[in-house]
Amino acid sequence: PGPRIAPRHKRYLFTSFFPFTMRDHACTIIAGQWALYDAAAVIQRTFRAHLARTGRGKKAKKFPFKILFKPGAAMEQANGILRMVSAAESATDFGNDNDSSSGGGGVQSVAEVELAEAADYEILSDLQNGVQGLDDQPYKHIIKTFEVPTTVKALYSLLLADSSPFTESVHLANQEASNVTVGKWRPSASADEPHVKQASPAASTTAGGRSREVSFVQKIDNPLSPIRQGRGFWFQRVGWLASGVLVYQTLSTIKDVPFGDSWAIRKKWSVRPAGEAGIDSPLCQVTCSIECIFYKRLLWSGKMESETISTAMKDYAVLATKIVEFVRQAEGGSAGKGGCAAAP
């Protein structure tokens, strides 16, 4: 039988029975079903809220339309539901409630309410994403601290500059990613926007002023995920604090997987000079931290977070060694310190 959605104490699970050979096809269907259900659920909640505001929700406790889930038709189905709701909104006998006090003067349509709530969700997500400014405070979990035999400025030039192959050939290769596209660093948006405000007013105008996007296809080995690979996206920011610390932030999301739009991973590298020589110290310390953020309540959020942290600790144990080796090879060859690109 095909997949179906079963309510379990206000949480919704997919239940299906597929032969192992049909796994990929089944996962595609489930992902399509989930996208449709999620859109329909938002519309249903919005509709009930509209009834409550207009005084027509006392008797109309159930959604008056039967929602049929059709694989591959999520957007068309959701738009159809919106049209049905909008058309029925002005019916006087809606839900068998003829309360004359539910006049329509100044009342928003369901479509308008839906758009407003969507905008609120985008704003909330932007604040939760944590890109409100750069600082050297680690995230919730410190997964690796190590030292690299080079200066902080040289580390940026070797690992993060536009001309550096590190992100694709080392960092993402360590995660077995493919189809990698690394964007160029560009000045961030206006500092007046809340998600790009500077953490320190004393910092220079270039501190935290560069951002870029990275896209790739990520292999997924998590036994909880029915999807074997998904599209990964990184939004990255880099800059100097007034204290001379280099901060490198990444907001990571994976698409095409169940609940992929419900959570994200934040990573931060804080790079500071080691020893007493200041910014020109030939040794720098890198502190890597991570945390998971959830935009919705998920049944397995604790398990997802613990496995993400565990996997990241294993990956960074290997990555730290590769970074030190990469820097030593680069500085020992033709790409010496004198040939480094300019730091931000």
From TrEMBL:
Ranges for region Disordered: 186-210
Pfam families in alphabetical order: VASt (PF16016)
GO cellular component: endoplasmic reticulum membrane; endoplasmic reticulum-plasma membrane contact site; plasma membrane
GO molecular function annotations of the record: sterol binding; sterol transfer activity
Primary location: membrane
Domain VASt: from-to ranges: 138-328
GO biological process: intracellular sterol transport
Keywords recorded for this protein, A-Z: Membrane
Cited CDD domains: IQCD (cd23767)
Protein known as: VASt domain-containing protein
Organism: Diacronema lutheri
